[in-house]
Amino acid sequence: MRVVMVGTGYVGLVSGVCFADFGHDVICVDKDPAKIETLNAGGIPIFEPGLEALVAKNVRAKRLSFTTDLKAAMKEAEAVFIAVGTPSRRGDGYADLSYVYAASEEIAEYMEGFTVIVTKSTVPVGTGDEVEKIMAKHHDAENFAVVSNPEFLREGAAITDFKRPDRVVVGTENLKAKEIMRAIYRPLYINETPILFTSRRTSELIKYAANSFLATKITFINEIADLCEAVGANVQEVAKGIGLDKRIGSKFLHAGPGYGGSCFPKDTLALARTAEEANVSLSIVSSVIDANEARKRRMAHKIIDALGGDLTGKTIAVLGLAFKPNTDDMRDAPSLTIIPRLQDKGATIRAYDPEAMEEAKDLLRDVTYMEGPYSCLEGADALVIITEWDEFRALDLRRVKAALSEPDVIDLRNIYRPETMQNAGFNYTSVGRPD
């Protein structure tokens, strides 16, 4: 099938490449000439494991191409996916849908024949109705269908998530659109992937509800971690004990410095604002938003307290800046809250992250970026682990201790065992465990 992907950000690029790998003819369109030039030259504007090789493979097979020319891309297109950004609007937290509506206007202008317009972007309930109104200004109703098809991609594991998803959700009641969407996702039938057809509004809400529920699980275990510290319990054992219950499950029960990234912060905010407009109370979601922001601040205070309260003249080595490993995404990363607060208390910050340092340079001030973990540690008064990259899980502890001027380690991801660190001679602080 001929598929057009409008937007080559994280969702659009991964989705377009994977559709091409399914065997479809995919054209990815973006307004940014520099980004398209990079992609056509074989470069990848984001970090995602395995993506560069998959792009190269499908470009060679002539199933995947990149352009700024939407008009040319739309010729004979059977489905057009809208995968542009929907960031939180400044000031009120509502999803900014201006890019979605602008893309819809352009698609309507160039559309030929029956076309399925698919919102892949994360959008509030009712957005598809507005897109449909835009299309209806230019085309008769029988010449198009507007479909919701939310993405459920984890950064760092997006290709696997796309090709082996838990489910595919498609919001449409149009029979012709259903057949086209089945054809697009037909390769997943081999793996017996559940494809859930719903109404469009239900599909739109599923995405927000899923992310808000996962954000709630993270926030819940973080609060339990605080209680564990107060009463002398171990949050990892608590998480295992409740996670073995199949009704709860073990995923997203890892205590840490709070969630961040491109999805959970903006999607919980957007869901809360949608509820406000509908005069419905979502007190749990609102509490999760507030608690997560407080969590990041609390982690900064935890570090400050572990180092005696006064950081004047101290150099702190920070390992990990991205909101999670295997991505360079700095959006709402805990490091963006924690590091400035340490600086406010007088600390000098050195930092190392395998992928996110270029992004971080635009967001953090007065940070010295190092070439590796050990150079970052050399002569520092303390080590703080904020992101659990694999390469931080097996540091040479003798080398770490020799590099630090003081043996102080604050591990906000619990990647080391307290007894191991104590036996190695460190003053070790972790989250929700007796240290």
Search tags:
about 425 residues, alpha/beta, Rossmann fold, N-(1-d-carboxylethyl)-l-norvaline Dehydrogenase, domain 2, 3 domains
Write the layout of secondary structure elements.
Blueprint: E1 2-6, H1 10-21, E2 25-29, H2 33-40, H3 51-60, E3 64-67, H4 70-73, E4 79-82, H5 98-110, E5 115-119, H6 127-136, E6 144-148, H7 158-163, E7 168-171, H8 175-184, E8 195-198, H9 200-231, H10 235-243, H11 264-277, H12 283-306, E9 315-319, H13 335-344, E10 348-352, H14 357-361, E11 367-369, H15 373-377, E12 382-385, H16 397-403, E13 408-411, H17 418-423, E14 427-429
Parallel strand pairs: 1-2, 1-4, 2-3, 4-5, 5-6, 7-8, 9-10, 9-12, 10-11, 12-13, 13-14
Characterize the structure shown.
The relative contact order is 0.09. The radius of gyration is 23 Å and the shape is globular. It folds into 3 domains: 2-197, NAD(P)-binding Rossmann-like Domain (Rossmann fold, 3-Layer(aba) Sandwich); 208-289, N-(1-d-carboxylethyl)-l-norvaline Dehydrogenase, domain 2; 295-429, Rossmann fold. The strands form 3 sheets. Strands 3-2-1-4-5-6 form a 6-stranded parallel sheet, sandwiched between helices. α9 (200-231) crosses α10. It has helices at 10-21, 33-40, 51-60, 70-73, 98-110, 127-136, 158-163, 175-184, 200-231, 235-243, 264-277, 283-306, 335-344, 357-361, 373-377, 397-403, 418-423; strands at residues 2-6, 25-29, 64-67, 79-82, 115-119, 144-148, 168-171, 195-198, 315-319, 348-352, 367-369, 382-385, 408-411, 427-429. It is an alpha/beta fold and 435 residues long. It starts with a strand and ends in a 6-residue tail after the last strand. α8 (175-184) links the parallel β7 and β8. The chain is built from 17 helices and 14 strands.
